Amino acid sequence: MKKLILPTILCLFSSPSWPQECIQGDCDNGEGIYKREDGSKYIGNFINGELEDGSLWLLLSDEFHDGNESFYLKANSVEISGDYLYAVDLSDYKENIGPFNAKSVTNHVQIECSQSRAKPLNILAHKLSMAQGEILSSTRELDLEFDWTSFDENERGELYGGICGIADDYKTDPKPNVIFKEVNF
């Protein structure tokens, strides 16, 4: 059974947890990665120890593929548009994977909550961990189109279902939220 860290997202709404340690690069004056206590990571440019420009990746699960893959959701990436959600998620691997020898993969995904299904719109394979470094491959470049996959058939289905639940709550009671970027319903 995979350990779900989705409840951590709910805690983020009410009490911010700031970075705990620099795990890579120069987090004072340069590019770096800060790891938060909850496992989420800030990635980007730092000036005088402050994140100047970058991204927050929220840790959702660290137990995919027997702990060899961690799964993140990009903060403020979820768009609600009619019956669909659009989000950016990230798989970060302990070992390089696939034909492109990628260390991480970002997935731009479309989620249809009412049908409990999702499909990738574009997948990017990255040379370095946490969507850093050269983009090794893009499904747009390969002209691939994906079919819908039900949550029951998708290893991330339970997580996508949780995001749908948060979106439903948000539609009825909008509050400041770290996962939503834009809402058009």
UniProtKB/TrEMBL annotation:
InterPro entries: Adhesin_E-like. This is Surface-adhesin protein E-like domain-containing protein. Pfam families: Adhesin_E. The lineage of its organism: unclassified sequences, metagenomes, ecological metagenomes. Residues 57-157 form the Surface-adhesin protein E-like domain. It comes from marine metagenome.
